[in-house]
User: Which sequence fits this backbone?
């Protein structure tokens, strides 16, 4: 089966699997070269994000910490793979393990009954906005994740969250897509890549850094340094 997407087919991603070669040593060397190249890509992308956004990550984390200190909660959302990231983000804040402070967090992409009811009865465009309208308060934080930045249900969710006074945080890829055009997002962090794989890897780093900085801000009374 061929996988289509921004990076092309599986054959183009892993040519050594489809070359028909029986030279095991050559295949292993191609695997090594491919792994090294992909590792360098993600390292370069993370360096680019750090250079562009380190100060804004600190400012965002401090604002998040202030919301949590005021009794706020984190509401995370996304579609597809980004829904999985939203769940991971919520879990990271709620069940951090060790001596880290558990913080109230909820994934809006995790309740199948709510998602299917809203999608069936009204439309998929409202699946996150309606939940924010129901659960969101002025002390809360809305974090939406997308690789393209163009998902209509995220755009509507950010607009709803902004109207209700939530702190809004967008995490996107490519050049930010339509999310970059919104006035309703307080902080937008972009992984500038055309590879969905590299984007999602960098986004994982972004929200883990936000969590670490937020923990530091809560533990240290708000003073944190750039990553």
Assistant:
């Amino acid at each position: 089966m061929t996988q289509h997407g921004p990076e092309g087919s599986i054959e183009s991603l892993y040519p050594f699997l489809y070359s028909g070669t029986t030279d095991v040593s050559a295949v292993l060397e191609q695997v090594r070269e491919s792994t090294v190249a992909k590792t360098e890509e993600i390292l370069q992308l993370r360096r680019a994000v750090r250079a562009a956004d380190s100060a804004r990550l600190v400012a965002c984390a401090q604002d998040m910490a202030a919301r949590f200190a005021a009794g706020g909660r984190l509401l995370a959302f996304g579609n597809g793979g980004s829904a999985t990231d939203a769940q991971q983000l919520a879990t990271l804040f709620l069940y951090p393990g060790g001596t880290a402070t558990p913080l109230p967090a909820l994934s809006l992409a995790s309740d199948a009954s709510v998602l299917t009811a809203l999608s069936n009865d009204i439309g998929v465009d409202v699946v996150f906005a309606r939940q924010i309208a129901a659960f969101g308060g002025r002390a809360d934080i809305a974090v939406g994740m997308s690789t393209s930045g163009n998902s209509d249900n995220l755009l509507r969710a950010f607009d709803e969250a902004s109207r209700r006074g939530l702190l809004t945080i967008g995490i996107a890829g490519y050049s930010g897509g339509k999310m970059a055009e919104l006035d309703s997002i307080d902080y937008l962090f972009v992984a500038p890549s055309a590879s969905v794989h590299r984007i999602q890897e960098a986004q994982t780093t972004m929200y883990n850094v936000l969590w670490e900085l937020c923990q530091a801000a809560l533990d240290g009374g708000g003073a944190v340094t750039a990553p």
Summary: The longest strand covers residues 167-173.
